[in-house]
Amino acid sequence: MRGTRFSTSPEGDRSVAPQGGWGGVTNAVLFRYSNTGLRSSVKRKGFGLAGKNGMVVAVGSDHAGYRLKGTVAGALSEMGYRVLDMGTDSEESCDYPDFAIKVAEAVREGEADRGVLICGTGAGMAMVANKVPGVRAAACNERHSAEFTRLHNDVNVLSLGARIIEPEEALGILGLFLDTPFEGDREEGTRHLRRLEKISEVEKKYSK
Hints:
The protein is of the alpha/beta class. It has a single domain (27-205), classed as Ribose 5-phosphate Isomerase B, Chain: A (3-Layer(aba) Sandwich). The chain has helices at 27-34, 66-79, 96-108, 123-129, 143-153, 167-179, 190-205; strands at residues 47-48, 56-61, 82-85, 114-119, 137-139, 157-161. The protein has a 6-stranded mixed β-sheet with strand order 1-3-2-4-6-5, with helices on both faces.
């Protein structure tokens, strides 16, 4: 397997997070994973620490998202999450459904608490993941969507577009995805639970 290569920019870290970082993604983490020349070799299927609050995150990409996957996986590991890298392992052309399904099934089966998918736009992999019952995937290439798909839709798989966003922005989106709670757990959020139940009914209807 080739070593995972972290994305870099010629200018180094061009982004500064607010004090305290974006949802757990601190300035130190941003600098470490976007600074010029950084490289790392990461073992597949289970690198990182025991997991932040016990959380396991499955990550997967196609060839277009391979470099950004390395950035995301490294940042997750740095923050203390346990990471399951489901591939791909190089920039050689491949088919995104093969890796999206691995992440989606890991989330469905409880092997991972959350999933992160990365392709060119984020759309294709989200489409695949949403075919798996119990998976709620959203392509989010800006922070507002990342925040509100967690608040209102309890999204459990984030899909990113490596050809659309810079690594620094991807980490900001990632932080919101990980740290934003679902409002359905509150009394005033019962409408969100009702809507998710209707999504489940649609899944059941077409799974027969």
